[in-house]
Amino acid sequence: MNQTIKADVKIAAIVILLLHVAILFVVIPRLSSQVAGAYIPKIFGDGYDQLAENLVKGNGYRFYPDTALTLMREPGIRFCWRA
Fold first, then answer.
1. 61, 55 in Cβ contact below 8 A?
2. Claim to verify: residue 8 and residue 32 sit in the same structural domain
3. What is the DSSP string of the chain?
4. How far apart, in Å, do the first and last CA atoms of the chain sit?
5. 0.70 cut: is pTM over it?
Protein backbone atom coordinates (compact mmCIF):
# COMPACT_ATOMS: atom_id res chain seq x y z
CA MET A 1 0.00 0.00 0.00
CA ASN A 2 1.25 3.45 -0.72
CA GLN A 3 1.47 6.27 1.79
CA THR A 4 -1.78 8.02 0.80
CA ILE A 5 -3.83 4.85 1.25
CA LYS A 6 -2.22 4.20 4.65
CA ALA A 7 -2.98 7.78 5.71
CA ASP A 8 -6.57 7.44 4.49
CA VAL A 9 -7.02 4.20 6.46
CA LYS A 10 -5.65 5.85 9.61
CA ILE A 11 -7.96 8.84 9.20
CA ALA A 12 -10.95 6.57 8.59
CA ALA A 13 -10.10 4.51 11.68
CA ILE A 14 -9.84 7.65 13.83
CA VAL A 15 -13.14 8.99 12.48
CA ILE A 16 -14.88 5.67 13.17
CA LEU A 17 -13.43 5.56 16.68
CA LEU A 18 -14.56 9.12 17.42
CA LEU A 19 -18.02 8.33 16.05
CA HIS A 20 -18.30 5.29 18.32
CA VAL A 21 -17.15 7.30 21.34
CA ALA A 22 -19.67 10.05 20.58
CA ILE A 23 -22.52 7.54 20.26
CA LEU A 24 -21.50 5.71 23.43
CA PHE A 25 -20.94 8.71 25.69
CA VAL A 26 -23.23 11.40 24.23
CA VAL A 27 -26.11 10.03 22.17
CA ILE A 28 -27.03 6.94 24.23
CA PRO A 29 -27.05 8.73 27.63
CA ARG A 30 -29.23 11.55 26.27
CA LEU A 31 -31.68 9.14 24.66
CA SER A 32 -31.82 6.86 27.68
CA SER A 33 -32.57 9.76 30.02
CA GLN A 34 -35.47 10.82 27.80
CA VAL A 35 -37.08 7.37 27.55
CA ALA A 36 -36.05 6.01 30.94
CA GLY A 37 -39.56 6.10 32.37
CA ALA A 38 -40.90 3.85 29.64
CA TYR A 39 -38.25 1.14 29.90
CA ILE A 40 -36.67 1.26 33.37
CA PRO A 41 -39.02 0.16 36.14
CA LYS A 42 -39.04 1.97 39.46
CA ILE A 43 -39.45 -1.27 41.41
CA PHE A 44 -38.03 -4.70 40.75
CA GLY A 45 -40.39 -7.62 40.28
CA ASP A 46 -38.17 -10.01 42.20
CA GLY A 47 -38.07 -7.92 45.38
CA TYR A 48 -34.46 -6.87 44.98
CA ASP A 49 -35.28 -3.30 45.99
CA GLN A 50 -36.93 -4.50 49.22
CA LEU A 51 -33.93 -6.70 50.08
CA ALA A 52 -31.49 -3.88 49.39
CA GLU A 53 -33.49 -1.40 51.47
CA ASN A 54 -33.62 -3.76 54.45
CA LEU A 55 -29.89 -4.51 54.17
CA VAL A 56 -29.09 -0.79 54.15
CA LYS A 57 -31.31 -0.19 57.18
CA GLY A 58 -29.66 -3.06 59.05
CA ASN A 59 -32.72 -5.30 59.10
CA GLY A 60 -30.98 -8.27 57.51
CA TYR A 61 -31.54 -10.18 54.30
CA ARG A 62 -35.34 -10.20 54.18
CA PHE A 63 -38.24 -8.64 52.30
CA TYR A 64 -40.05 -7.01 55.24
CA PRO A 65 -38.59 -5.86 58.60
CA ASP A 66 -41.06 -7.97 60.62
CA THR A 67 -40.13 -11.31 58.98
CA ALA A 68 -37.36 -13.78 59.86
CA LEU A 69 -33.77 -12.52 59.96
CA THR A 70 -32.85 -14.25 56.71
CA LEU A 71 -34.63 -15.73 53.75
CA MET A 72 -32.99 -19.09 54.46
CA ARG A 73 -35.30 -21.70 55.91
CA GLU A 74 -34.89 -25.27 56.95
CA PRO A 75 -36.68 -27.81 54.79
CA GLY A 76 -40.18 -28.78 55.93
CA ILE A 77 -39.39 -32.49 55.80
CA ARG A 78 -36.53 -34.00 57.75
CA PHE A 79 -35.04 -37.18 56.47
CA CYS A 80 -33.90 -39.96 58.77
CA TRP A 81 -31.04 -42.00 57.48
CA ARG A 82 -30.94 -45.56 58.73
CA ALA A 83 -27.98 -47.75 58.44
1. yes
2. yes
3. --HHHHHHHHHHHHHHHHHHHHIIIIIHHHHHHHSHHHHS-SS-TTSHHHHHHHHHHT--SSSSTTS-SSS----SS------
4. 80
5. no
Q: Are residue 23 and residue 51 in the same domain, yes or no?
A: no
Q: Which domain holds residue 63?
A: 41-71
Does 23 or 69 have the greater pLDDT score?
Answer: 23
CB 57 within 8 A of CB 65: yes
Asked whether residue 32 falls in the same domain as residue 51, the answer is no
The number of domains in the chain is 2
Tell me the average pLDDT across 33-38.
71
Q: Are residues 1 and 30 in the same domain?
A: yes
pLDDT of residue 52: 85
> What is the C-alpha separation between 45 and 41, in angstroms, rounded?
9
Residue 70: pLDDT above 90? no
